[in-house]
Fold this sequence. Notes:
Elements lengths: L2 H4 L12 H12 L6 E6 L5 H13 L13 H7 L6 E5 L6 H11 L9 E6 L6 H12 L5 E7 L7 H4 L3 E5 L4 H14 L3 E2 L4 H7 L4 H15 L3 E2 L1 H7 L5 H13 L2 H13 L4 H25 L1
Parallel strand pairs: 1-4, 1-5, 2-3, 3-4, 6-7
Helix pairs in contact: 3-4, 5-6, 8-9, 9-10, 12-13, 12-14
Amino acid sequence: MSLATKYRPRDFEDLVGQLAASQSLKNALEFRKIGHAYLFHGARGVGKTTMARILAKALNCVNGPTSQICNVCEHCVEISEGRATDVIEIDAASNRGIDNIRELRAQAVFAPMKSRYKVYILDEVHMLSPESFNALLKTLEEPPHHVVFIMATTELHKIPETIASRCQVFTFKKFNAREIAERLAHILEKEQIAFERDALLPIAERGEGSLRDAISLLDQTLAFSGSDALTLSAVRESLDILPIEVYSTFVQGLRTGDLHALLNAVHELTQGGANLRVFLKDLLAYLRTVVLISEKVEVHS
């Protein structure tokens, strides 16, 4: 089992970040202000589907609706394991046709088999066809009282206003590097793997705000190192992170206008198998850091 799967949050208390969405949903559960449709939007790997599953458990937990999920009752266990008959996850990217939505509408009218709510989780909902959105709209306008729709998307601008206006919309922000590094440290401590603190930040930064991607990179690095410890050198080699001198030399060439040196640097990078797209991203990050340090120095001088 991958670390991303093993350490997927199971309840509100275990969630990382997304405090605004989490607190709003917890309050809605506690005060019985449950909506019939939710729309979660944000970048990949920031917890949209995880939050949807947690909300499904909160609605159907034997103690629910509740923000204090037990994670031991039949409903919670089945949802966690992805085998709950009343929680239906649909990948809209591969089920985008009108026939798929018509089938959903036909099934939605039936009461849950053994849960309190029938929950439909539509991932990548922006992939639905215009005809499918129109068909879904009819159900959202007059939803059965026992149905809750939770839709997730990385591209909010592609969702028709008629759909979004009938949902409670929550924004899921990207994680900052510190939050990701803290979660990676938590995972390594749970796995009883020794690690260098300095080794976590490069992984967090390479995740580009996606906690899931960062954990996958951690998995990759651990597999590469093949040891019981995570070191900075192993992270740099596994993720092909170049020495900082490469960036400083390249920037020096830009400052002096030394075209020959710049072309040689690019040639060496390509000959060494470096990914130039990644190099440019890391170069921009290096420049940003240099500018921030320069500004701090000027302020304190």
